[in-house]
Structure formats: structure tokens, C-alpha cells
Design brief:
The structure holds two protein chains of two kinds. Chain A contains nine helices and 21 strands. Chain A is α+β, with helices and mostly antiparallel strands. Chain A has two domains: 4-232, P-loop containing nucleotide triphosphate hydrolases (Rossmann fold, 3-Layer(aba) Sandwich); 238-356, OB fold (Dihydrolipoamide Acetyltransferase, E2P). In chain A, a hairpin with a 3-residue loop joins strand 12 and strand 13 (257-260). By secondary structure, chain B is an alpha+beta fold. The chains are: A alpha+beta, B alpha+beta.
């Protein structure tokens, strides 16, 4: 069991700042996801914790002990890359017990631990097969078993599902999460896929451009993003972000639209300033079409997603996504009137891209 | 733009049948999507229409006349590939203009300018016209590649996974642009993809292809609501459809190893055992529901939450709006929407209702 702490951890490759100072605590038993686009520094962060990358400054603590200068093999964390790294000439069983054999673990101990992981992952029927005879999903189960059998204090997973097709990813995502619920092993999981992050993480660390943009639960990063990057990155599509100008209780939007500001944000925005540029943010499901809606836009396109329909509206060239009933049927260029669910409106400062957080909020 | 008809076409590569007597038609102005996994025969179909491969059997016609005697150039199709092929040393303007400067066409430079600027505007790359192709981002390059097809007025646009090299956010944005363009221009388009979301969101009609055979042709609604086989049912929709073994007991439908049981829908004639298809959005959390279960797993995606509900030995996926305050391990009650069920026989073929 492990608590991992990063204190002002920073990484430079020459002049290139790969990770700017980050502070983060991963609690014992927690599943934390490092999420961001490629090149944001998430894998470097993970590799520093594993000891595969030196750190430029700062320190890393494992259960309070400073492990900054400890070599990787002594850190007692298990690193799983793409799961496919199995030995092709060994059976699944041979692959799973290999780490214990190299440690000189006794035969009875190996047998006992093998039984344990086999039960946990339900892979008895695969043990005698070689990796070449296994599906990619089963190969990953074997690789997971190999990581589990070591009983490490923490798991570090680097895009383990990246190489799988969409269907398999969905299955494995649920499997890894339920495995975590059973083992309660501290886990740090790297991905660029926001759906994976939301589905799996107890908390999500959103990174971009070497900086941690937000640390929060799925609900926090979804409903209360710290800034416009997080608002856009989380959700598919991301949050609608429409530029406007604030004046006395409402925001002037493109196409002569006026968006009323909920009471909870009034005083904050009054302080922010009149006639000041502001960005209005709202999720696609906050768009409520209604004959008397205060806002209006033109239909740009509409698509069926199976269980719902997405209407894409043009508000004077700004595209707004609205998630509506699947039976919705609009024609291109139709005018749609709609309201925004008041509890789902957010505001951002276009200069800093930071969220303007309400002083009072009744959620 | 043309009506395109594929009639019983077969293609073999060294004895391996890539396409096995397939037929479908693409109507003038239609956005038609070929959907299937890798190796299904999608790209082969597209290349046969373009004249880049030669048919072994069957015929393809444009507006009722066979194109078999026509060379690829004479077929007058416009292709967009997954790998954008631009002239790296030319700027965006010249890349867009080059298809019009082909000696076959003899378009005046004034006309070319008008067309290029028009297309660039539609694809939102008007500000990039002077930029060298090698200095563009991936998304911009693919817009230019699509633009190179759009400057022409061919009989059909053939697009082979044009969005799959882009990241998720760009793909989303370009998907919407492409659909808007296609709808406003009413251009005939054959779009090949393995991505069910692209197929569902863009198509007027979808043909599902697997191992050289067409499993179903229909509108996105038909494919989603009335899948012809279990393969099609699983191919579209996220999270995927629940496929559950069912049997008949005392006139009731029983989902094996679970407590889910309900009267056989009137109009259906079911064999003694079958597979039941149930979309996750049709499994409702419902305090007054007929069935009880345990929440085994919660996946909060933001706009919705996926619930894995255990009932007996079965696990059913359910989707509910928003991020739920419910907890894993919680006992719940649920109901299912009977009108939206699909039934399949042992071979996985839909039992017609």
C-alpha cells in the first residue's frame, strides 16, 4: 500500500521544460489519471515516479520516504507500458510468474500467488497458451497478471489501452477499474483519452503544455473546469465557449443575442467589470430548445448518435453544440430558439482563459 | 453528380475473395457510408469505383451506363485518402488549383481563382492560401486535401477514412464541416470508415460490410434500431448493446442466469432459445422497476454515466444522464423498455418482428 507525493517536481531536457513544478498527492488506494494531449508532460511525470527518468528538481515521496534518488528496481512500483510486452516463447503462465522466478521466490509461494491472480482475472483457461495464440485483450490480461503477481505498492500504467480498438478499450477499461476496486492498489494511469480518464479515475490530473491545469474528481473537471483548456478538453464535444461582453446582469453574444446571467454570478461579474469581454461556457446538454427561448441560432448541421441527436448551431459563425432528443428533426439553416440551463452556465476571462468562479453558488 | 449502381460485384486477390457479389446503389446527392472493420472490403469497393482495381464479376454504372470501359480519369471521380497527399513545396492556393490546371480541363485562371477562394472559404482555410503545404498542421493539411477534391465537380466524391489520422477534437470539428458542406452542396459522396460514430453521424445511408459481404444497408436509425445481425448490433452504439442469452419459460422471455423475465411481446414468434439485444439507454434505473440488481461498476463520463448492473450472473449495461450520486455496490431496481428490444436466432440473424 502506498501514498505517493510529488513536491515541486520538475523536469527539463536541456532548454526544454517538459514538466513545470508540480505538487500532487496520490492517496493510498486511489486511482488517479494523468490526462492530456501528446507532449503535455504526463508520461514524463509517470516515468519520474517510476525512476525511469531523473528529476531536475523537487522530490518524490513514497509513504513519506524520499525515493528521489532510489533506482527504479528498488522503488517497489510496477510499471506497465503497452501491455503487449510478453515473452513470445513462454506460455502465459511462464510470463506471469517470470518476475517472481527472477527474484528467487519459493515454488510454493509462486504457486499460491499465481492462484490468487488467476482467480482475480479469471484466466485459468489461458495459462498453457503462448502469447501468439491469445487475442490482444487476453494478452493484456496476462500482462496485468504479471504486474499484479509482484504485489507492488503502486501501479503505474502508461496508455495501456492505446493500441486496442474502440470496442476492446471499453471492455478492458471496465475490467481494469473493477480490478482496482478489488485490489485497492494505488494506481497512476496515463492517457490522452478523456473518456477513459472520466470513466476510471477517482481524480483526474489534467495537464497541458508541461503544466497541471486542474486536479479534481470527474464531476469537478466536467462541471467546474479551471480554465478554457480543461473546458474544451473534457467532454465530446467539449464545452461550448462563446465570446461576449458583460453588462449589468447579462452578456451580449454574437448575432444580437443576450444571455441572462444567473443570480449566483451577478456580483462576481459586476466586480469583473462592465463592458468587459467574457466567454460564456455551457455543455451541449445544457442547450434546451424552446419556442420562447431567449437565444437564437441557425442550424449548421444535425447528427444522430443513436440514443440522442446533436444539433450544431451557428450563432453568427460561432458553432454551438446542443445535445437533444434523438427524434429532433431540423433542416440546415432553420432558426432554433433555445435557453441555457442556468445551473450549467460558466464564465471565463478570455485574456487569461481562467474560469471566473462564482462567489455564491447554489448547486 | 450521378446515381451510382454497384451490381453483384466480386473481387478476388490471388484466390482470396475480397468482395463477394455485393450490390448497392448510391443516389444522386446522397451521403453514403461504407462501415466495417479492417479487411472488410471497404477500400477495395472504393478503388473499384475509381477504376484503380478491375472487377472480376458484376458491373458498376453511373446514371445507368456501365463505367467498365472508362479509364480512371474518364470516370471523373474525386478521391480523398487517409494520408493527405499535397505538393509540399506549393502553397495552399496552388495545391487547391492544381486539379483544375490539368490539361484535360482547360479552366481559365480567373475561373480557377474564383473556385479556389470559394472552396477555401467553405473549408475555413481562406487565411492559409499563401502558406506552404509543408507548414500546415495535420488538420489544416486534411482540409486542403479535401479542398482539392471539392474544387472539382466530379460525378462522385470517394473518401477513404479521411479523418482517421486526426486527433479526436479535430475529427469532431471536421466531421461537422464535411456534413454541412455535403448537405448544402448535395454532392454524391461515398465515405469509407471503420468508425461507427462517423458513419452514424454523417450518413444518409450506411452499408455495413464484413468479410466481403454486405450485412445491412439502411439509414442510421434503421441500423441502430433494427440491426440485421448481432455483428451489426455490436458495431454501432457506445456503450455497446447488451447481447444476452434468452429462453422461453411458461410464455415468458427469460434472460438466462438473471431474474429478468417478461411476457413475450405479442407480435414476435420466438424459438426456445435466442439472443436478446438491449441498448443500454433502454435499461432504466427505476425505484418502481420490476427487477432488482446491484451496481457493480460506475463509469461517469460527464454527460452521462454508464452503470454495470448485476442481476444474477448477468451484467447489464445501462446509461443514465449526468453524473449520478449513486454508489458502487448499491442495490437498485430497474426496468427495461420492451418496445426497443431486438431478438436474434442462434446464427445471430435478426428474428423479424
Amino acid at each position: 500500500m502506498a501514498t505517493i507525493e510529488l513536491v515541486q517536481v520538475e523536469k527539463k531536457f536541456g532548454d526544454f521544460h517538459a514538466v513545470k513544478p508540480v505538487n500532487l498527492t496520490i492517496n493510498d488506494g486511489e486511482f488517479v489519471v494523468l490526462l492530456g494531449p501528446s507532449g503535455c508532460g504526463k508520461t514524463t511525470t509517470l516515468r519520474m515516479i517510476a525512476g525511469l527518468e531523473t528529476i531536475t528538481s523537487g522530490k518524490i515521496l513514497l509513504n513519506g520516504e524520499d525515493i528521489t534518488d532510489k533506482p527504479a528496481r528498488d522503488r517497489d512500483v510496477s510499471f506497465v507500458f503497452q501491455f503487449f510486452a510478453l515473452y513470445p516463447h513462454m506460455t502465459a503462465k511462464g510470463n506471469i510468474i517470470f518476475p517472481l522466478q527472477t527474484q528467487g521466490t519459493s515454488r510454493s509461494e509462486i504457486e499460491q500467488r499465481l492462484n490468487e491472480v488467476v482467480k482475480m482475472l479469471d484466466i485459468q483457461y489461458l495459462l498453457h497458451l503462448r502469447p501468439g495464440a491469445l487475442s490482444s485483450g487476453d494478452q493484456q490480461r496476462i500482462a496485468l497478471a504479471r504486474a499484479l503477481i509482484r504485489r507492488p505498492r503502486a501501479f503505474l500504467l502508461d496508455e495501456p489501452l492505446g493500441a486496442l480498438d474502440a470496442d476492446f478499450r471499453e471492455t478492458m477499461r471496465a475490467e481494469i477499474k473493477s480490478l482496482h476496486l478489488r485490489t485497492k492498489a494505488t494506481t497512476l494511469y496515463v492517457t490522452h483519452d478523456q473518456i477513459e480518464a472520466m470513466a476510471m479515475g477517482d481524480r483526474i490530473v489534467v495537464m497541458s503544455a508541461a503544466i497541471v491545469q486542474q486536479v479534481g474528481t470527474p464531476a469537478e473537471v466536467y462541471h467546474d473546469p479551471n480554465n478554457m483548456f480543461v473546458a474544451r478538453f473534457i467532454g465530446s464535444p467539449g464545452m461550448n465557449l462563446i465570446p461576449g461582453t458583460y453588462s449589468q446582469g447579462s452578456v451580449q453574444l454574437p448575432g444580437n443575442n443576450v444571455c441572462p446571467v444567473p443570480e449566483t454570478y451577478r456580483s462576481t461579474l459586476d466586480k469583473y467589470g462592465y463592458d468587459k469581454k467574457v466567454v460564456v461556457g455551457f455543455r451541449p446538454e445544457a442547450v434546451i430548445p424552446s419556442a420562447n427561448g431567449v437565444l437564437s441560432s441557425q442550424v449548421y448541421s444535425q447528427d444522430l448518435h443513436g440514443s440522442y441527436t446533436m444539433i450544431n448551431l451557428s450563432m453568427n459563425g460561432e458553432i454551438i453544440h446542443g445535445r437533444v432528443e434523438r427524434s429532433a428533426n431540423y433542416a440546415i439553416n432553420d432558426i432554433v430558439r433555445f435557453d441555457i440551463r442556468p445551473d450549467m452556465i460558466r464564465f471565463f476571462d478570455p485574456e487569461t482563459e481562467s474560469a471566473i468562479k462564482a462567489e455564491v453558488r447554489n448547486v | 453528380m450521378s446515381n451510382v449502381d454497384l451490381n453483384n460485384i466480386t473481387k478476388r486477390f490471388k484466390g482470396v475473395t475480397a468482395l463477394d457479389h455485393i450490390s448497392f446503389d448510391i443516389k444522386n446527392g446522397e451521403f453514403f457510408v461504407l462501415l466495417g472493420p479492417t479487411g472488410a472490403g471497404k477500400t477495395t469497393t472504393l478503388r473499384l469505383i475509381a477504376g484503380l482495381e478491375i472487377l472480376d464479376e458484376g458491373d458498376i454504372s453511373f446514371d445507368g451506363s456501365s463505367i467498365a470501359p472508362l479509364s480512371p480519369a474518364e470516370r471523373d471521380v474525386a478521391l480523398v485518402f487517409q494520408q493527405y497527399s499535397l505538393y509540399p513545396l506549393l502553397n495552399v492556393y496552388d495545391n487547391l488549383a492544381s486539379p483544375l490546371r490539368s490539361p484535360l480541363r482547360k479552366t481559365s485562371e480567373t475561373e480557377i481563382r474564383k473556385t479556389v477562394e470559394d472552396v477555401a472559404g467553405k473549408l475555413r482555410i481562406g487565411h492559409l492560401l499563401k502558406r506552404k503545404a509543408s507548414n500546415l498542421s495535420g488538420g489544416e493539411m486534411q482540409r486542403v486535401a479535401i479542398g482539392r477534391a471539392l474544387v472539382r465537380n466530379p460525378r462522385i466524391y470517394l473518401m477513404d477514412e479521411p479523418l482517421s489520422n486526426l486527433d479526436a477534437k479535430l475529427r469532431e470539428a471536421l466531421r461537422i464541416e464535411l456534413k454541412h458542406l455535403q448537405k448544402t452542396q448535395e454532392s454524391t459522396t461515398l465515405f469509407v470508415t471503420h468508425d461507427q460514430i462517423e458513419a452514424m453521424t454523417m450518413a444518409d445511408r450506411i452499408a455495413v460490410l464484413n468479410q466481403g459481404n454486405i450485412l445491412q444497408v439502411g439509414s442510421p436509425y434503421e441500423i441502430y434500431d433494427h440491426p440485421a445481425t448481432t455483428f451489426v448490433a455490436q458495431l454501432v452504439g457506445t456503450p455497446r448493446i447488451n447481447l444476452l442469452a434468452g429462453e422461453i419459460h411458461d410464455g415468458n422471455v427469460l434472460i438466462k442466469d438473471s431474474e429478468v423475465k417478461f411476457a413475450v411481446p405479442n407480435e414476435v414468434k420466438l424459438p426456445s432459445s435466442f439472443t436478446l439485444g438491449l441498448r443500454p439507454e433502454n435499461v432504466h434505473l427505476d425505484d418502481a422497476g420490476e427487477f432488482s440488481g446491484v451496481i457493480e461498476l460506475l463509469e461517469p463520463l460527464g454527460v452521462e454515466t454508464i452503470l454495470h448492473i448485476r442481476s444474477g450472473k448477468q451484467v447489464l449495461l445501462s446509461v443514465i444522464a449526468g453524473i449520478t450520486p449513486r454508489k458502487m455496490g448499491e442495490n437498485i431496481r430497474f426496468s427495461i423498455v420492451h418496445e426497443r428490444l431486438s431478438f436474434f436466432d442462434k446464427e445471430g440473424t435478426r428474428i423479424v418482428t
